Amino acid sequence: MARQATAVRSSGGVRKPARRPESSIQKLLKNPKVPFAVALLFADAVLVFLIIAYVPYTKIDWDAYMSQVSGFLGGERDYSKLKGDTGPLVYPAGFLYIYSAIQYITGGEVYPAQILFGFLYVVNLGLVLFIYLKTDVLPWWALCLLSMSKRVHSIFVLRLFNDCFATTLLHAAMVLFLYKKWHLGLIIFSGAVSVKMNVLLYAPPLLILLLKAMDIFGVITSLAGAALVQILLGLPFILSHPMAYVSRAFNLGRVFIHFWSVNFKFVPEPVFISRGFALFLLAAHLILLAIFAHYRWCRHEGGMFSLLHSRLVQLKLKIGYLSSFPLKQFNNFNSNFRILTTEHIVTTMFIGNFIGIVCARSLHYQFYSWYFYSLPYLLWRTPFPVWLRLILFAAVEICWNIYPSNIYSSLLLLAAHLTILRGLWSAQPDYPYTDNKSANFRKDS
C-alpha cells in the first residue's frame, strides 16, 4: 500500500507542506480579547497592592484561624478542642494545612499574609479570565466586570478568608475540566472541598458532566480519587478522633446567626433558624436542580433518566465485551464517548452552584466569592438585553456592599437572583458536544 502523502500539490505543481492543526493555546492567543484580558489582570494586580498599602485591614477571622492552627501544630488532633475566638473549627483538614503553611511563611503577621493573598487574588482572576476566554461568551469590554467588585477585593486582601483558597482551587479544577482532565480535576476539586464545604454546591452538576463525559467505571474511579483525597487529608484526625472530625468538619446542619446574613433578612428570626425553613429551602434546591438537570442539562440526551439508563446499558455492554472479546476491542468500545463543549461544562457548573446560592438559608459577606466570578457569565447566558444584565449585576453588587444588610437589601438581592434564574431557564440550551449536530445527523441517517 502506498504511503499516505504528507504534503499537498498546488495548482502550479509545487508541493506545499501540510499545515499542522493549531493547538488550543495557539487558538487562544489569536483571540483578540487576550491582550485586553492581560491588561485587565495587570491593572487589577496594581489595584490590589494599592488597596493593601493604603486601606486599613480589619481583623475578623484571622486571629481565630491562627489559634486553630496553633492548636493543630501543637499536636491536638481532637477537632472538638480546636477553637478560636469566633468559635470551634468547622472546616475540613485542608484548611488546617493551608493556614499552617501561611502561619509558617508569614509568622502569623497580617501584612505579609495580605501580600500572599494579593498574589492569590491575581492567580484566581487569571484562572477566571482563562475560563472566560476559552468559552468566549462575553464581549471584551464585559470582562471588566470581573474586577469591579469592592466586596470581593475586600474578601481577598482585607479579610483573608479561607473562601479565597476554596474559590481559587475550584477555578483551577474547572480549567482542568475544560481540558477533559476529569480525574485530576476531581482531585483538585476535592482539595477545594477540604478547605470549605461550599464547593459541594458544584457537585450535582459536576456529576451530570461526569456521566456525560465518561462511562460508569470512569465516574467511579474519579469519585474514588476525590474521596481518597479527603481520607488522606483527614487521616490524622480520623485515626485519633473520627467522630469529632466528621461531625465538626462536615456539619451540614449548622445554623448561622440571623444578623450576619445578607439574604432573607425579611424573614423573622424564629422562622429563619427553624428546621422547617431549612427543609423548605433544601426541597427547593433539590427540585430546581432536578428540573434544570432533566429539562436543560440533559435535554439532548432525552432527559436525566434517559442519560442514567444509557449509562447503565453501556455498563452491561462493557461487561459483555470484557468477557467475550479481547481487551483491545474493549478499549475501543471504551473510547466512543463524545467530548463536551467548554460552554456546556462552564454553564452547567455555574448554574448548579447559583441554584445553591439562591436556596442558601444564610449568605455571609465572604460567601459572595462563591459565585461573584460566575455572575457576568450567567448574565450573558440569559436572553436579557445588555442594559438589564448590567442593572442586575449592579443590583447584586450593591446588596453585597450594604452593611448591615436589611429587609430591603435582602429583598432586592432575592429579586435579582430569581430574575437571573428565570433568564437562565428561558435561555435555549446549547448543543453540549463538540461534534457538529447536523453532521452527526447526516452520519446517523
From TrEMBL:
A GO cellular component annotation in the UniProt record: endoplasmic reticulum membrane
Keywords assigned: Endoplasmic reticulum, Glycosyltransferase, Membrane, Transferase, Transmembrane, Transmembrane helix
Metabolic or biological pathway, per its Swiss-Prot or TrEMBL entry: Protein modification; protein glycosylation
GO MF, any single term: dol-P-Man:Man(5)GlcNAc(2)-PP-Dol alpha-1,3-mannosyltransferase activity
Catalytic activity: an alpha-D-Man-(1->2)-alpha-D-Man-(1->2)-alpha-D-Man-(1->3)-[alpha-D-Man-(1->6)]-beta-D-Man-(1->4)-beta-D-GlcNAc-(1->4)-alpha-D-GlcNAc-diphospho-di-trans,poly-cis-dolichol + a di-trans,poly-cis-dolichyl beta-D-mannosyl phosphate = an alpha-D-Man-(1->2)-alpha-D-Man-(1->2)-alpha-D-Man-(1->3)-[alpha-D-Man-(1->3)-alpha-D-Man-(1->6)]-beta-D-Man-(1->4)-beta-D-GlcNAc-(1->4)-alpha-D-GlcNAc-diphospho-di-trans,poly-cis-dolichol + a di-trans,poly-cis-dolichyl phosphate + H(+)
Bilayer topology term: Multi-pass membrane protein
Pfam family for this entry, one: ALG3
Cell location: Endoplasmic reticulum membrane
Enzyme Commission numbers on file: 2.4.1.258
Membrane-spanning ranges: 34-57, 113-133, 153-179, 186-210, 216-239, 273-295, 345-364, 384-403, 410-427
PANTHER family reported in the protein's UniProt record: DOL-P-MAN:MAN(5)GLCNAC(2)-PP-DOL ALPHA-1,3-MANNOSYLTRANSFERASE (PTHR12646:SF0), NOT56 - RELATED (PTHR12646)
Full protein name: dolichyl-P-Man:Man5GlcNAc2-PP-dolichol alpha-1,3-mannosyltransferase
Gene: LOC105165232
